[in-house]
Amino acid sequence: MAAITHVRNQHAALTPGSGDDLGERLAALAADLFSADAATRAVERAFLERLLRILALTPHEVHDLAVAGRLSGMLPPDPPGNATPVRFSDIPGWREPK
Amino acid sequence: MTPTAGRFLRHAETARKTQLPIRIAEATPQTLALWDGYVQPHVRDAREFRFDRKWQWAALLKFHQVQETIIGLAGARRAADVRLLQAFAERADGTAFPVGQVLLACGFPFIRDWDTPSVFLWYLAAAPRQALHAAGLPPDLKLMRPLVDIAVQESYANGFEGRVGLHAARSRWNLAANRDLYNRYRHIGLAPLPGGLRASVGRRNDRRYFYLDAPLALDFARRLDYLR
Fold it and tell me: What is the ipTM of this complex?
């Protein structure tokens, strides 16, 4: 799991930001791949190879995959968010003076 | 800069020429959940063909943010700022409903001149008629121009003189949908990238790239001034 922790920390360093949970989701993906009795170097390598395939895509290739509906298979689905209603008058207009 | 620069639309128009107040805002996890909860199910179930049927917007945002960060760290070029902006309309009960959204890369190399920054519009989606109807909003809301205008205004706001690039999505099997989308982009004033030019390093031009340069963007924006 050291590699997974490393990847998670590396991602956190790359894209700091509130609400960004990709690192956690990668860790969850790793947890799915790893189990107490299957934590072998081969499995760890398989995970890292998959991760590298994702990171090696160009923006145009990501677009191609998304349009083809094949991107969603590369990461676990997003957990459902909190769709609490927001008042229209409370929406802060983008680039509008406060 | 122009009189229209940086002024996002305040209204959208229906096919019947009635107007509806809208507000443009950056997506938050909460407002993205509104799209996922109340719009994306209608996208998935739409009877008509939709390119965005399987899009996961939160994942797309993160994919592109991570990629741009890596590109910037690698020194290939300056990293673009990836943003997800939404257009909201007001429901009868006063709550906001996302009627469309765009994922932008601000600072992406302009497809007509790679040395010049622009806004690249990676993904654009308007809520389907069924979602608008279910929300009590006019189902004939016309949203393609307003959504492209978000990219134009963001380009102005970043000092890119309105330059915008995009790629019209292409289905392997639905040629009618490909043709329809191509024609719609042309119809609203976007120019196709000439066949002799590449869209990006190592990226062939499949004749589905479109752009607005400064003069075209000015014309595009002015046509929408009555909705600002």
Answer: 0.85
